Structures are given as structure tokens and as C-alpha cells.
Amino acid sequence: MSRKRLFTIDSLKSKSVMILMLLLVCSISHAQEVSFETDKDTIQIGEQIDYLIKVDEVNEEDLVVFPKDQTFVPLEMVEDYKIDTLNPQAKTFTLTKLYKLTQFDSGTYSVPPQLVKINEKAFYTDTLKVRVNDVVLDTTKQKLYPIKPSIGVDKPFALPSWFWWTLITLLILAGIAFLVFKLKKKRDEAKRRIPPYEQAMISLKELDKSSVLENRNFKEYISELTYITRRYLEEKLEIRALEFTTNELISELKFKKEKKKLALKEDLILEYEKILKRADLAKFANSRPDLITLKSDRKQIEKFLKQVQSSIPQITEEEKKKDEAFQKALAKKRKKQKWIVGIVLGLILIIVTVSAVVATKGYEYLRDTVVGNPSKELLEGDWVTSDYGVPPISMTTPDVLVRGELDLPEEILENVANKETYSFGTLYQNLYVTLNKVRFKDSQDIDLDVIVDRIYSNLEERGAYNIITKSEDFETLGGVKGKKVFGSFSIENPITKKDIKKEYKIVNFGRGGFQQVIIFYDRDDEFGEKISNRILNAVEFKNLGQ
After folding, report:
1. What does the alpha-carbon distance between residue 482 and residue 510 come to, in Å, rounded to a whole number?
2. Helix, strand or coil, per DSSP, at residue 70
3. Tens digits of per-residue pLDDT, 356-374?
4. What residue ranges are annotated as transmembrane (predicted)?
């Protein structure tokens, strides 16, 4: 009995714990709520809706991410406002974000649930249904007026952005070229300057004429004296004499003497070492040499320079020839380097210019402008307006339509009084335009819906596949009604055996017979789309008297 009671107590405890955990989970999951509000669910075309998303029970540690970009499709987001906070002083507050939505086509639309993330946890709003009504125009109260002709307006002068990109690039390249030529100029000047020995003798004479000794500046005098020798040794022997310490410089001179690149006596090197050390003591230990010693050092330095100049081995004729060959090879190498630098700078200019054009105008613009686009050339070329057949149909096309032979089934030919066809291009080119006209002996009504159904099978007979067909009513500017069939298909190129993806627009009329305008163009060709619209908008039926 006690065991049973103990089990019951334990069960009650476990159930209590489970209930508390469940309540805790429920309280956490329902602590934050996401909802939305709208000011209306029915609008006119182009009117805007206020779509407000609210997130309740948020604290400062929560990270809330609202929808971004165009996530309200099929509605279009016009503007989104900054996140607003309600009751910011409270422990938990409410965040709101307002969006302006609109739609320019009539109909009923459903805005999908919007995703709001709170601490990486997903919350969704409910679906919103919006009704978009047409703008009703009462022609009894509002008069209609003819379309006014376009007025030419001179465009204000403005430099395109790619021009500035190119200008900046040219300035950068000019700066690089300036630095390169300036460096080259310095090198050329260094070659043309006074030889090292003559320069050292001139410097010694200038030091003698100076008033350094008279002013008792012994430290400056001996420093300048040793500097003249160091500069001479650096230029003549091509060693780092100005950077070497006294010990390093003396070691380098002894090394060149051992290698027989410098024929100097040992006592001359030792005497020069003593002068260098006296200069070091004057510069770093504030030692003050006497005037007699400095004058002696001056004579010893001149003797040292003369001995070094005469001890350098003279260049033989063979070495001169080798040096001339080396100079020619070096000049050729430098010329090649100049060509390489010029080509690289040219390529950089081309790349930057192309990048600037692509960044401002887009890749398609660059491709169509540089490589060329046949459809663009047709669209921007001189169009031709001509009348075709009897009674005439006026069409405006990129080129004149050429008359051909129209093949019809045998069962139709018996009742055909006249048949005509005019075309431009072929089915496999970027643009194909055809006008077909059939006049019957006996007047009869043409069921355009039946003809629409036949178009799919006609395309299949031509070898088309993956055919998508749509239809709608069509009316010319003159008020002649017809049926428009449009869509896309694929067809195999008989030469390359590759798929060609096409768009098509076919308009059928039944005015005193049968008339048909066919336009095929490449899919994703924006110029082909513009050409087809321009052709169809200009179709006009004329009477014989016109």
C-alpha cells in the first residue's frame, strides 16, 4: 500500500514538472507575436497601401530582422520606412515597420506571408488579399481629345559618367608615365655628370677656399674631407662606402687589393685608415684635431685619391668590345621593357574604359555597340512604309517585304479568288516578318478562334517544339479587330543542329477575307520585342480609294 502511494506521489511530482515545463515553453513561444495591419484591402490602379508589420514583447537583447527588398510580389514595394519603437522605456516594447505597396494591373492578388526573424527564429504574417480596380472613365462627362504631336526638346549638355572614368584613368596613367620618365631623366643626368675623380678634386679645392679652417671648425673640415673620399670610392669602385663603417671600408679595400682589382700599397691604406679614425673620434667622441694634422691629412687624402685612380686596372680593347656589346644588349632590353610597359598601360586603359562602360551602361550596351547587334541596327535604321495587296494593307517595317508564293491546302484553293504573301528574313534569322492575304470567291465569315487553334499544329509542322501559346483580342489604330496569338517555341538550326529559342506574335484578321501578320524574333531580344510592337501598332487597312 505504501509503495502504491509512493508511486502516486512520484507520478504527481513528474506530472507537475512536465506541466511547469509545458507552461514555460508555451510562455516562451507566445512571448513574442508578429502581426500586420493595412489601411485598406481595395484600391484603384496605382494607389498605395500601408502595410504595417508589428512585433510585440521585444526586449533590448532581441535581434529582429524585417522583410527586405521585393518580397511582397505580386504587389510592388514603393517605399519602406525606418523601424519605429512603441514604449521604448518599458522592459518589453513593440517594433513596427511600415511598407508602401501598390499594383498597376487590375485583379485580385494575394500577398504571401512575410518572414520576420527574431533571434534566428522564423515568424510569419498572415496572407493579405487585395482587390485592384480599374479607374473608371466616364466619357459623357470627360471629353476625349486627340493625341498631341510630340515636341522636340533639346537635351541639356551633360558628360556621361564613363567619360569621367576614362579621364581619371588617363590621369593615373599620365602620373605613372611622369614618374617613370622623371626617374629615367635622373639616371641620364647621373650618366652625364662629372667623373668621380674630377668631382673629388673640385670638392677638395672648394674645401680649401672655404673658411672652415679659419673659423676653427675642425670637426666639420675632417668630416667633409672623409666624405669626399667615401663618395669617390662609392662611385668609382661601386661599393657602399658612404654606408660602411671605417673597419668595413678598410676591409673592402684590402679585399679588392687581394683580388688584384686595386693596386694600392699597404702603408697608403693604413694611413687612410688613421684619417678615417680621427674623423670618427671628432664626430662621435668630440676629439679636437690640431690644425697641422688636418693640413697633413688634406695632402694625404689627395695623394690617396691619385693612387686609387691610377691603381684601377685599365680596360682592354677586348673588354671595351664586350662592354659595347653589353650596352647594346642593355639598350635593346630597355627598348623591349618600354614596349611592354606601353602595352600593359594600354591594356589597363582598355580594361578600365570597358569596366566603366559596363558599370554605367551595362554589358549588353557594350556588346551591342562594339560587336554590333543586327536587331538594334534594324530598329535604329530607316524604316519603310508600304501598301501591300488589294485591298491594300499598310505596314511599316525595317525593310520592304518581298512578294512570294503562298501554299494553301487543296480543299481551300477551290474557293480562293486571290492569295498573296509578302515576307522579310527567314525563320532561322533574328527577325522574320510575313504578311499573308487570302480573298475568297464567295463571301464567308472567318472564325478566328478556329484559326488560333490551328497555329499550334502549324508550328509543329514547321519543326517547332516546346511551344507555348497564348491568345488575346487585338485592334488596330483604325479600329479593325482581330485575334492575336503569341508565345515562344524552340526550333533546330538545320546547319548547326543547335536549338534556336524564338518568340512569336501572329495577328489574324477576317476583314473581307483572311489577313495574317506573322513576326518571329529571338527570345530575350529586347530590340526584337520593340520591333514587333512597332510593326503591329502601325498595321492599317486601307480602302481602294485611299
Report:
1. 7
2. coil
3. 666 666 656 656 555 557 7
4. 162-183, 339-359
